[in-house]
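User: Predict the full complex structure for these chains.
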Amino acid sequence: MSFISIRNVFFSYDEVEEGKVVQNAVDGVSLDIESGEFVAVIGHNGCGKSTLAKHLNAMLLPDSGSVMIDGDDTSVEEKTFDIREKVGLVLQNPDNQLVAGIVEEDVAFGPENLGVEPAEIRRRVDKALKAVDMYEYRGHAPHKLSGGQKQRVAIAGILAIQPQCIVLDEPTAMLDPSGREEVISTLLKLNRERKLTVVLITHFMDEAVLADRVVVMDGGKILTQGTPQEVFSQVELLKAHRLDVPQSADLAYRLRGCGLKIDKIPLTQEECVAMLEEAMR
Amino acid sequence: MVRDVAFGQYFPGKSLVHRLDPRAKILMFIAYIVIIFCTFNYAALAITSAFTALFLILSEISPKFYFKSLKVIIFIVLFTSLLNLFYGSGDPIWQWWVFKITYNGIHRAVFVTVRIISLILASSCLTFTTSPTELTDAIERLMRPLKLIRFPVHEVAMMMSLALRFVPTLLEETDKIMQAQKARGADMESGNLFKRVKALIPVLIPLFVSAFRRAYDVATAMECRCYRGGAGRTRMKQIHMTRRDVISFIVLALVIGGVILCNIFVNWSI
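Assistant: Here is the predicted structure of the two-chain assembly.
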C-alpha cells in the first residue's frame, strides 16, 4: 500500500441542507503518493488543492471517501496526532506559523508538544536548523528575518517533529523570487538527501517542473497527472483550463504551431536552448 | 514611527542578566517594585538607584534602548511630577494664583520621578534580557500552585507568549495600514485630539480584522505541529536556579535591608 492513499474523497465547506446544491471543494479525488516521492499539485485559486492538503494531516476530514496515511485512517480520532507526527503541513504565510519569539524556540515547539526529552529536542532543533541552513540565525527574532528565511524556519519547525512526509501549501506565494529559490532548493535537498516525501502545492509552474510527478487539479477534481514532461506536453488541455505552462513549454508549443518540428516539449531553460539550437540546424 | 517602541522587546545576549533564571528575575522585579515605593529618604533612594544602575550596566544593552523606553512615558513623568510639585504641604516658597511650591512639594516631585523612571527601567531590563518564551515559562512555573484552584495556568502562559510574539508583527502591520490609509488621503496628524482619535478608526478596524484572521492561521499552524494543550508537554530550555541567582538574591536582600535601615535611622522623610 502507498504511504498516502486518498480514495474517492469528497469535501464541502457548505452545510449540507435539503434541496440545496452543495459546492464541493474536493470532488471525488483519488490519489496515491509513494514514500520518497516529490509530488507537485498545481491548479489555480479555488481548485481545491489547499483543501486537499489539509486532508493529508487530518486538519480536515473527508465528508465521504477515505484518506489513509501509512495505513492509518485520518478519520480515526485517536490517530490524529500520530498522523500529524508523520505528515507535517507548512502553510502559506510564514509570519503566522512562527509562534515563539526566538527562532530556535519556535523550532522546538513541535517536539515540545510531543513530550520529547529536552536534550533530544536540542539535538533535533540543531539538526533541523542545519538542514534548512538557518543554524546561524537560531538566536534571532523571527520578525527580523526575510520571507524566505522565515519560511525555512517554518520548514525546520516541521522537520524537528521528524515527519516522513512534508506537505507545503503554497509556501512561496508570499515570497520574492530569491526567497522562492531558497525554499525550493531546500525542499529538493531534503527530498534527495533524506528521502523525505514532499507534496508541494503551488501555482508556480517553474516549481512544478522540478517534481517527480505533477498532479493538476481543477474544480475539485484531478484533471491530469504524470511526470512534468507528460503533463506540460498537454499544452492545449492546460490552456483550456486557464492554467499556465512553463515559459519554455509555451514557446515550444507556439513554434510548433508555426510549423516547426519539435518532438519533445522542453521544460527548463537549458532544454529550451538545446531545442532551439536543434531547430535552427 | 510605531516601530520605535522599544518597550517589551527582547534583545538576545549572553550577559549576566540574560543568564539569570527568569523566575528569579520576575521575583526580584516584584520585590524591587515594592521596595522603590518604600523609599522615604534620599539615602534609600540612592541605594535603589545604585541597584538599578548596576543591573542596567550588567545587562550589556545599549543605553539607547533604555532611553527609547523612557521617551514613551516622558509625559506621564512630567505630569505626575508637576502635580506633586504644586500639592506639597508646608510653607510656600513661591506662590502664584492657586499654584504654590513648597520644599515638601519639590521633594515629592523628585521622588515620584525617580520611582517611575526606575520602574520603567527595571521592567525594560526584564523584557530586554528575557525572551518571551522564558518569561512565560517562568510565569507558568511560578503560577503552578494556582492549578489547584483550576486556574488555567498553561493556557494563560501560552496566550501571553503568543501576544508577546505578535507585538512586533502587529506594529509592523499598523504601520502598513497607516501608510495605506494616508495614501488614500487619510489625515492623521492634524486637528484636535478628538479628530485625531477619530482618524484612527480606519486604522483600527482593518487591524482588528486582520488580527482575527491571523489568529485563525496561527491556531491552524499550532495544530499542525501537534499542539494539544499543556498536558505532557516538555520544554527544550530547562530553567535552573544557579549560584548567579543566589548571589543576585543576596544583593537584592542587601538593598532591601539597606532601605529599611535608612528608613529607620535617617531622621528625615517625606
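Chain B touches chain A through 31 residues (CB under 8 Å).
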